[in-house]
Design brief:
The complex is a heterodimer of chains A (about 400) and B (about 140).
Chain A lengths: L8 E8 L10 H16 L8 E5 L6 H8 L6 E5 L5 H15 L4 E9 L17 H10 L6 H16 L3 H15 L14 H5 L3 E3 L2 E2 L8 E10 H6 L5 E9 L19 H14 L8 E3 L5 H10 L8 H6 L16 H4 L6 H12 L11 E5 L6 E8 L1
Parallel strand pairs in A: 2-3, 2-4, 9-10
Antiparallel strand pairs in A: 1-7, 1-8, 4-7, 5-6, 8-11, 10-11
Chain B lengths: L15 H8 L4 E5 L5 E2 L14 E5 L3 E10 L11 E8 L4 E5 L13 E8 L5 E7 L6
Chain lengths: ~400, ~140
């Protein structure tokens, strides 16, 4: 018999490192620091951690982290594929483990020297043949080496079809930068962004500029998932997981789903939306705040439609009306997001979703009963809805 | 030391044949021999009828731009910037990702008619690209 995951598990701990451009330490060191801080935040003895989940792109293996931190006996571990699309998948793995009894206290994390070490979009080449490398080669041979080059193709179609302008994208970037001004761990802290600076910014692709692109960051972020019941006995207010899912749809490629008939929407995000709303019994009207994945500003605009906050083509007006700001309909990425806090592959956006439920965001909106968080856009992805206990 | 060129595709069972055709001047489109469905990029199985049997047809090279972008930064060796990237809907019905040369970034547009040609790099590597239809192709 199928077991419902609704309300069974909660995020009970958040651990981060400092987010920098040059950590000066190994990615394993960053991972250990975040995991330790996560246990401290929750008030959980690290020896009680029995499950670990991270990214396939992570360079620190589960047992290396377990050994260095001194975790307990492990009964479940997993790595999730597809870059930032993995973020919510980590949560789903942990919830499945907690709900099924495979593990009791699962830590999920991502640690990366994303600026000083291996940067995104360096290209891959060589003699190794795999279906994944053949996939990338259809684009890299033509010079599409960077995430922004892949994203620009669908973004341009969407912007052209619905009349989205650079001013709309500027509002996304500036709203999030404004949030970052209150977040001492954000790259945008102390660095306000004006519309003039945005419009004059370096052009990266047609039609995205540097402020439409996320940070590159050295840092780590870890989360503890345990049963809702157990979470109530720990130190923090639980962020109860009302619904969680992964989502990939027909015609899916990693960042380059260019062969679907229509290129003006995000079918995988629409699947994620249907699933999390069905599981949670909630709808867009119940969501008070969000942390929508924002490697690029256009992804925010398109997701507002995927998750039903606007009709197709109307997200630009929703954005222009200031609805992503603190007093708007949907305060979004109140920590600054990937654009203005840090790029920890989306795990830092999930952490902010938890803070919003706890009531501890550096930009706490008036109401945050239910918070929606999504992971990577244009890749196999997922979504989660947190609620107050 | 030779000048670094474009990033070459790994040549595996599922894709090398397409590049071999390109080197001979053909823009190939994979075809399922069971249900005749065309597909691109190449894959080992037909997702319509699940057949593993396939051959290919030569595209006329005629198509229209269904989306595009222009890349300005970062700039990698082996490519010329600004670099126009296009999604072309070929008249046979499949879509291909490629470069558009022979026009400025300002001239690229949705729905623009384009024609394929085979570009040859300095190191001899051959790769299908497109140019505005008015300027002629393969």
């Amino acid at each position: 018999m199928a077991v419902s995951m609704k309300n069974q598990a909660a995020v009970a701990g958040i651990g981060t490192t400092k987010y920098t451009k040059n950590s000066g330490v190994s990615e394993l060191a960053l991972a250990c620091e975040a995991v330790r801080n996560c246990c401290d935040d929750a008030g959980l003895d690290p020896a009680e951690v029995d499950g670990l989940v991270t990214y396939t792109m992570e360079t620190s293996d589960e047992i290396e982290v377990a050994r260095a931190v001194g975790l307990g006996d492990l009964t479940m571990w997993a790595k999730i594929n597809y870059g930032g699309g993995a973020a919510v998948g980590l949560i789903q793995q942990a919830v499945m483990a907690v709900t099924s009894g495979a593990a009791k206290n699962v830590i999920v994390w991502r640690a990366m020297n994303g600026r000083s070490g291996q940067r995104m979009g360096q290209g891959v080449s060589g003699n190794i043949i795999s279906s994944d490398l053949i996939h990338w080669s259809w684009y890299m041979a033509y010079g599409m080496l960077t995430p922004v080059s892949w994203v620009a193709m669908i973004a341009n179609t969407y912007m052209h079809k619905y009349g989205v302008t650079r001013e709309h994208l500027a509002e996304v970037a500036i709203a999030q930068r404004t949030f970052a001004l209150n977040n001492p761990n954000a790259a945008g802290y102390g660095r306000p962004l004006t519309i003039e600076e945005y419009m004059a910014a370096k052009r990266i692709t047609e039609r995205l500029c540097i402020y439409d692109c996320c940070q590159e960051t050295d840092g780590a972020c870890a989360l503890l998932i345990t049963s809702t019941e157990r979470a109530r006995d720990l130190r923090q207010k639980p962020a109860v997981i009302r619904g969680v899912t992964q989502a990939s749809t027909r015609g899916q490629e990693q960042m380059t789903s260019f062969y679907r008939e229509e290129l003006d929407s995000l079918p995988e995000m629409e699947l994620a939306a249907r699933r999390v709303y069905a599981m949670s019994g909630l709808g867009p009207k119940d969501i008070d705040a969000a942390c929508l994945y924002d490697a690029f500003s256009t992804e925010i605009v398109m997701q507002l439609e995927s998750f039903g906050f606007c009709e197709r083509g109307e997200a630009k007006d929703f954005v222009a009306d200031g609805n992503l700001r603190i007093d708007g309909r949907l305060p979004n990425n109140t920590h600054g997001g990937l654009l203005s806090e840090a790029y920890i592959h989306g795990v830092n956006n999930i952490a902010e979703g938890v803070r919003l439920i706890r009531g501890t965001s550096c930009n706490q909106p008036r109401r945050a009963e239910h918070v929606l968080v999504s992971s990577g856009v244009g890749v196999p992805t997922g979504a989660v809805i947190f609620g107050r206990d | 030391m030779p000048k670094p060129g474009r990033i070459k595709p790994p040549m595996g069972h599922d894709n090398a044949w397409w590049w071999e055709q390109a080197a001979q001047g053909v823009v190939a489109i994979q075809r399922c021999t069971q249900c005749q469905t065309l597909r691109h990029p190449p894959r080992p199985m037909c997702s319509e009828c699940r057949s593993l049997e396939w051959d290919f047809v030569a595209s006329s090279g005629k198509g229209t731009v269904t989306s595009y972008t222009t890349l300005y930064y970062p700039q990698f060796p082996g490519y010329e910037y600004p670099l126009n990237i296009v999604l072309v809907d070929l008249e046979e019905g499949t879509r291909v990702t490629s470069c558009l040369t022979g026009c400025t970034p300002e001239e690229v547009d949705f729905g623009m008619a384009v024609t394929a040609y085979i570009h040859e790099d300095e190191d001899g590597f051959k790769i299908p690209m497109f140019r505005p239809a008015a300027k002629g192709g393969i």
